[in-house]
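Usage example:
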Amino acid sequence: MIKLINLTKKFGSFTAVNNINLEIPFGQFFGFLGPNGAGKTTTIKMMTGLYEPTSGDIFLNGSSIKKNPIEAKKKIGYIPDQPFLYDKLTGREYLYFSGGLFKIPQNELEDKVEEAIKLFELGSWIDKRSENYSQGMAQRLVIAAAMLHDPKIIIIDEPMVGLDPRSASIVKNVLKERCKQGAAIFMSTHILHVAEELCDRIAIIKDGEIISDLSTEELLDSKNKYNGKLETLFLDLTN
Amino acid sequence: MSEFIHILWYKLKSNLKLTVDLSLQGIIKNLGSVLLYAAFAIGAYVLTHSIIEYLLKEAQVGMFLLHQFLSMLLFVFFVTVNLGNVIVSYSTLYKSKEVLYLFTKPVSFVNIFMLKFLDNFFYSSTTLFLMGLAVIAGYGSYFSMPFGFYLVVLFFIFIPFMLISAILAIFILFMLVKIANRIGVTPVIIGLVVSYVGSIYFYFKSVNPYKLVDEIMKYYPHTDQYFEMFMPSLFKYLPNHWVSEFLYWTVKENYSEASFYAWLLITVALFLFLVLFIVGKSYYRKSWLASLEFRFFNKKQIHNKQVIFQKSTILQRQTDVLLKKEFLQFFREPSQWLHLAVLVLLMLIFAVSVSRFDYNYEQPFLQSVTYVVIYLFTAFLIASMAIRFVYPSISIEAKSFWKIKSSPLSIQKFFNTKILFVFIPIILLGIILSIFSSWSFRNEQYLLYFSTCTMIFVTGALVLINFAGGSFFASFNEKNPIRIASTQGASLIFLISLVFLLFTAVIISTIALRYFEFSHANKIFPHSIMIKVSLLFAGLAVVISAICYFIGLKSLNRDFK
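Running the assembly step on the lines above writes:
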């Protein structure tokens, strides 16, 4: 389970995230929407240990990211919005490097790497240095690396950026499958139809505060009030 | 022209806008930079003044020889400006995002080219400009020159001189891009380094400073003549010679001779500027397009099937993969290993040269000065190595640092692995350099031990100072190690390293002087003092290293933006 308790992040006098409380159980696909600068990425960066919360805490499967960051990070698979890689490493080396950071035993890792290469169709590129990769290819590699240790919590920031339809389809299928297997997925996105298609629950953040948190059924009801369009609902709420 | 002025105006506006960074790092960086530049400028001024005074009053080398020395220094300066412009102009003319932006606008290519050239000239030469001006000030003040002298030298001598160097750099760059298209980038870089080192070598081989000094000093004390016959005729065509001749004749108050060289510099600079405009107009766009070939289209896609990650080691899992990553990142980046190879080569040349040095002077003072100078130069080389390779090692993670920060890995382990990767090679290099450079003192066995032992501690402290600095001022937006090593933060850390070396020099020189005094009096210098001083060094190095380690580690825990 992912738990965000009174989570706040301030940069000087600016409050990027203001007292957020959320609980995402295992097996739920959670969509986190909001306009630019609303606080989505800041929230994710706190969840993954890139930012220190100003106050409040985040619990990832019971481990506090503030008090026990290493234990907490063991449980997550993080996919950032921009897939920055070590460009002098090949795709395969990057996968082994990632597996090593999560202390996956060497013999187990070899099988997992081969599996990931097949699943994300990285075959012809895997031994080339990632400096030659397109954004979509780099994104596929980052997702493959994030799944190596079978995380129970997956945190994704804009997963479809730069992906071609085929790659997008692979990624969507993998995420759906992981969710079915019981993983809690926290996904931030701008693409409303992706959120609609994948998520069981959608929250909208604006100016650092959650202004809406709806389950699929509630979302359907609300949408109906806006000609059945999530876009109209989103625009109305965030305007 | 209006288009050119329009863009220039907005570029100036944007560059002149002051941004005040009130963060701790920002304040330290800015204060440090002001201090550093002021220290360099004052240092260059005082040094120039003192050297001229020494050469003319103490050594009595005469005005001609003094200006020949100046000409040699100006040659090195010219080559430095030239090389700096080749490197920076490659980024500004070919890789800049601003160029890409302007290419999509209805702006003529020649305007873009000239704008970027000026951009590049002022950006890459600012520090050298400052240094040059400080030297001119030191020179002028020694000869009590009037205020007008400085203006004339600045606008009609110094700027044309640097402009000639910068323009030639662009021609060289155009040529290099053409060659790189045919044979690839790596051979071109190697060729470039060899050519520059070679040009300096052949220049000094032809000038032969030792022979020049010998020939002229035969006329002692009548050294204040114009010894034209000792001047290699080829060098009369070099701009460094024109500048030194201008200064020589100005001080001699022979203004007609001096003005000839001023006109020569101005005319050549203007002519080259005109040629640059014509070449830029017809060739820049073509050259930019050609650069795409080797930058993108013809770029060899390297396959690395040998996966060192698959091989298990005795190391702990995370340390193992971090070290392997460091190794591959370093040795797959040509700017890293090439630069390392060149620096190590130069260091070895230095070490071998000084190992044959004869220090058997009559006076213990001269012996101790020789010893301290060699020791300090060795330490200075290590400090340079540290600023170039240790300081950038954290920032070089660049945007990929998210992977480390979001992994179940303690930052301390990451930090320790980074230190481990550079610490051992640099310590080894420090020991080798120290032994070689103190080899001429091998008969003074204990002094050799003392040098090597203290050098290990000095090296260790320098590595940690640079690590802490690199971590404190870490900027993950730049992944080019050379650029990281030339930021404001890096300059400040280099200054701190120099202060540390200054402190070292005080202790070392005291010991060395006493040692040689004892030696001249046929007495044995008490070894216990050397051991105590070595222990003092060890203690100091450990304290400095511990403080730096703590600062570096704490800095890495801040938010990764």
